[in-house]
Here is the input.
Amino acid sequence: MKKHFFYISLFVVLLYSSCINMEEKVKPPTPVETSIDINKVIVLLPEAKGIDLVNANCMTCHSLRYIEMQPDMSKKGWDKIVKKMVKMYGAPISDTLVVNQIVDYLVTIKGK
Ligand code: HEC
Here is the structure.
């Protein structure tokens, strides 16, 4: 009789400890992102001449989504934007040849 009691209590203890382990395995729910940070949005612009210059110079401060979101513009319009990036916001593009190649690329993909 004493032996039975021993086995039963052992069984109960083992059952209890396995429950504790199971509880530990339940992972807390991972938080769900509820908003989109525009700078985390990865945008791939269309392949065309000059894309390397845009990738190298135009995504250090913001997402390329800024370019994608613009309406189609004339060469004059894009020129104004790129010069604004350099003069007002300090985009480090000192070479006017590079500025012109970037403008040409932008006109190719979103010109009118
Ligand atoms: C030194 C940082 C910097 C660099 C480099 C930069 N930009 Fe910007 N850009 C800005 C800022 C600041 C804004 C305004 C952000 C805002 O309004 O939230 C902006 C806004 C824009 C916009 C939105 C329209 C507008 O007129 O404000 C476009 C399009 C744009 N940039 C294109 C470009 C292109 C093309 C290049 C590469 C030649 C470039 N940016 C490089 C800082 C930069």
In short: The helical segments are 2-25, 51-57, 65-68, 75-87, 96-110. The chain has a mean pLDDT of 87. Residues 38-110 form a domain with the Cytochrome Bc1 Complex; Chain D, domain 2 fold (CATH 1.10.760.10). DSSP finds five helices and no strands in the chain.
